[in-house]
Amino acid sequence: MGRFVNPDNSAFQVALNSRIYVDKTGLLEYTNSVLNTTEAYICNCRPRRFGKSYAANMLAAYYSKGCNSEEMFSGLDISRESDFKTHLNKYDVIHLDIQWFLANCDNVDNVVAFITKSVQAELREIYPGVLPEEEISLSESLSRIKNIVGQKFIIIIDEWDVLIRDEAANKKVQEKYINFLRAMFKGTEPTKYIQLVYLTGILPIKKEKTQSALNNFDEFTMLDAGVMAPYIGFTEVEVKDLCERYHRDFEKVKYWYDGYLLEDYQVYNPKAVVSVCVRGRFRSYWSETASYEAIVPFINMNYDGLKNAIIEILSGASIKVNTAAFKNDTVNIQSKDDVLTYLIHLGYLGYNQNRRTAFVPNEEIRQELTTAVESRKWNEMITFQQESEHLLEATLDMDEEAVEEGIEKIHTEYVSNIQYNNENSLSSVLAIAYLSSMEYYFKPVRELPTGRGFADFVFIPKPEYVSSYPALVVELKWNKNVKTALQQIKENKYNLHCNEYFASEIEETKLDLKAESDKLIQAQLKYEKAQQIFNQILSEV
Asked: Domains in the chain and their CATH numbers?
């Protein structure tokens, strides 16, 4: 057993000892299926604190000859597979954490040499007399061992991209590191000594021109998670189970921490879900995983349309993103789309693969992204927020002239590129204009089923603001009058959803045996008042 070659299983044991552990051994079922094939070269990238290192530690604990992990994995999903014991602790494993090597190296220029020297020292102990005393490359070392002993290797590299991110401007170091990886993994000779390679980090493999520097790897990312979608991060089914176990409100957890759409899975940040389950506090835990300061220089780049795009995204809109040009580093960022793609990889934005659109995934990230924007004191953002707040106040005061003026002002000054030529365009302008409402309302629901049809927009107030802010139902019409819209509201009975919203509050109060009688009375009165107001409006149509 060594530190880097054939490590023990203590790192994975820490995960199993934790208060909350979610079984992700399905990943092992997949890696077992691709061992010693062309698909055995895997780069699986996710944002910080998504469980990447846990997965890497799990792979090492399962495959490494340096430990006996049968008891550790018994009872987990992988133990029920027919080939469970076939691969259990049967391989020579090299497990590297590049972040650790970078932190413990005296000079960043020597990181590759430090890795090579550390691993070779352990290989010489395991295979005495096989390697020469003079310094050779790590790839040459592995090739010689395979040729003489017949042993293949499983190589696991955690934080593979840390040099790409932290040493972005150091071209010499990056070239040396990429060449090191190429020598180990690319070409015919590596196929002779590689059983499996698993890289994990935040960024996909760096591109050279339009090609990946390691184009023999299958890459699984926030843009295209593929078969890896359920294995990094918590799925919705897993979160529901945790909410039930820890008596947390699932819908509230979903609103705060959901939103990453990977293939057919809604994926949650494990750090956030574990924190809210254990602590019981709904707030942003993102700042504990990554500082927004890292992205401030990029969102502050004055690329055409970037600032308006950020404002649109914060309003709840989804915007088109061309992700193809991004070079998977931070040096070659040259456009608005590059910045947005980088934010997707970092987890600050969600991505819809089918529509090729980016969006703010949840309330936690919206708060963090807003903080990042506000920290730069964009004059545009400060003024815009003020205008948006005035618009919301005018709406709540039912001052139709001020509302008309406010929407037109925001459209002209901030989103004039969006033309009033259809209802979709108008809805985009509206979402942006009411950005300030996000403090008091949930993200507006578009085309919400209500009665017999769909309302274009429904703003539902957050629980803490229900008594002060009404639900808002918006019907948009292009080239038609107000009466037409009101008539549709009446005919389709859009009020039913709002009635249900207030009614549900009454029922929740009734179910709470500790509820005070006056709270129940207030809820009932609010429900009746809502009905009266809605019916009064409809009677005027």
From this structure: 10-228 (3.40.50), 235-283 (no CATH), 291-374 (no CATH), 377-437 (no CATH), 440-539 (no CATH)
